[in-house]
Structure formats: structure tokens, C-alpha cells
Design a protein that fits this description.
Layout lengths: L9 E5 L6 H17 L5 E5 L5 H7 L6 E4 L16 H6 L4 E4 L2 H6 L4 H13 L3 E6 L3 H5 L3 H21 L3 E4 L13 H18 L1 H6 L2 E4 L7 H5 L6 E4 L6 H10 L2
Helix pairs in contact: 1-11, 5-7, 7-8
The protein binds phosphoenolpyruvate.
The site of phosphoenolpyruvate has 14 residues, from strand 8.
Length: 256
């Protein structure tokens, strides 16, 4: 299936709470070596734990790989023990930040309202937010997938409007596919991506045409090509497979 509009693909690796200084260095060394051999047209990003961002920033200074944080505070600064602000991430040269990952929503009770505030804080701090949205298995089985996804998207639109949303990236990640090995089929994923784009089109034609919508949920070297061939899938947010340089690189190649 051909993409009608030329949106640049993105492959983003969410390292979650994995790694160490040595392991990160080795992973990035392998990845940068693989990437210099091939001329990839896709944008490649990594999201290490915040503690390691400074080291990653130094190591990636001369590379084409971008990086960002997995989370940020909705507050700009002040007495918020344990939190990290957008300006601090910017200070470490981060370009992007994940907001609303399903693990943050479910394990740390982040509401859609809070996720929207974080999205806004990211934009105000000069970062590109990657908004993660997706339904649980129970919600899918109850036929509520699009209700949930639209609700999560609309919460952000309510706070930053179409102009704000257009400055970020959306990642559709069905919760039942994250870390389970149970990926959505290319058709299942395409259906949701298509509906998200149609939802955006009702608000703004250009927003819908230009929005990069990534798929996430057990993407690996085997299934990436078929998923990324779908017309509304503009790349992927990769968890487990982003920790293995060879496989992550294979996924990047599948995206272009
Ligand atoms: C994720 O953490 O965003 C993710 C998609 O994980 P995995 O690829 O391991 O399912």
C-alpha cells in the first residue's frame, strides 16, 4: 500500500527502566556502527531512563540518532521532589519526550488530563511530545477502542488545540500488545490509525495529513515490514526489541 502523503517515518526505542552506563554505551556503539553502513531515510530516536540522558547526549553528539525522555513533569519548576522538568530535559539536549505511555497511565495513575498538561509543558519547554494512546484488551473486547483512543486524544486537544497537537507525534499502542508478544495485525493497527486520522481530519485537514502516527506493541524484526507498509502507519514505538541493536536496526530499515 502506498502512502498518499510523504510523512517522514520515525522509529523510536523506549528503553523503559533498562540499561546501565556500560550497557547503554555498547548498545549505542553497535547501533551507530550499523547506521553508518546504511543510509536510512527514517528518523531514529531512543528514549533512555532520564538518569542516563546526559551520557547518551554526549555519545550521540555526532550521530543522526535523536533522543528524548520517557516522562516529564507537568510543572515548569519548583518544589516537586523527584520530578524532572521540560527545561531540564532541553538542557540535556533532548529533542523529544514520551507522554502518556500506558505504563505511566496504569501504574502511576496518570489521567488523560495530566497527560495533556505534560504535553503542554513539553511544548512550552521546546520539546516534541510523543503522545501514547491505546485501549486495554477489555476495552477492545467491549467494542470501545475508538471511544478510548478519541477520549485520550481529545483530552490533549482540549488543552493545546489543533495547533499544539500538530507540533507533536501520536503513538497508537494497544495496551494488550505492549510487552506481550501479541502484536496487532497490520489490518487491526491500520484500522485504528485510519480512524485517528479521520478524527483529526474533522478538525483540520492539514493536521490529519501531516500527523505522524506511530504504532507500538510487540513490534519486532519479523513483523515491522508489514506493519509499516500500512498507509496510515508512519513508523513505530519499540520497547523490548529496541534493546537489541541488530533487531532495532532491522526495524529501522523496515521503516525506510
Ligand atoms: C512500549 O513500551 O512502548 C512498547 C511498545 O513495548 P514492546 O515493543 O516491548 O511491546
Amino acid at each position: 500500500m502506498n502512502k498518499e502523503v510523504s510523512r517522514r517515518t520515525i522509529v523510536a526505542g523506549n528503553w523503559k527502566m533498562h540499561g546501565s552506563r556500560v550497557a547503554n554505551q555498547e548498545l549505542l556503539q553497535s547501533l551507530t556502527a550499523l547506521m553508518t553502513k546504511d543510509n536510512l531515510s527514517t528518523e531514529v530516536l531512543v528514549f533512555p531512563p532520564s538518569l542516563y540522558l546526559d551520557g547518551v547526549s554526549k555519545q550521540l553528539a555526532d550521530s543522526d540518532i535523536g533522543f528524548g525522555a520517557q516522562n516529564l513533569s507537568e510543572q515548569a519548576k519548583g518544589a516537586f521532589t523527584g520530578e524532572v522538568s521540560a527545561s531540564m530535559l532541553k538542557d540535556l539536549n533532548c529533542g523529544h519526550v514520551l507522554v502518556g505511555h500506558s505504563e505511566r497511565r496504569s501504574l502511576y495513575n496518570e489521567s488523560s488530563k495530566l497527560v495533556a498538561e505534560k504535553y503542554k509543558a513539553a511544548l512550552e519547554g521546546g520539546l516534541i511530545p510523543v503522545l501514547c494512546i491505546g485501549e486495554t484488551l477489555a476495552e477492545r473486547e467491549a467494542g470501545q477502542t475508538m471511544d478510548i483512543v478519541f477520549r485520550q486524544l481529545d483530552a490533549v486537544l482540549d488543552v493545546v488545540g489543533t495547533e499544539g497537537l500538530s507540533q507533536g507525534i501520536v503513538a497508537y499502542e494497544p495496551v494488550w500488545a505492549i510487552g506481550t508478544g501479541m502484536t496487532a495485525s497490520p489490518e487491526q493497527a491500520q484500522e485504528v490509525h485510519h480512524d485517528i486520522r479521520s478524527h483529526l481530519r474533522e478538525l483540520d485537514e492539514a493536521l490529519a495529513a501531516n500527523m505522524q502516527i506511530l504504532y507500538g506493541g510487540s513490534v519486532n524484526g519479523q513483523n515491522a515490514t508489514q506493519l509499516f507498509a500500512m498507509s496510515d502507519i508512519d513508523g513505530g514505538l519499540i520497547g523490548g526489541a529496541s534493546l537489541k541493536a541488530d533487531e532495532f536496526f532491522q526495524i529501522c530499515k523496515a521503516a525506510g
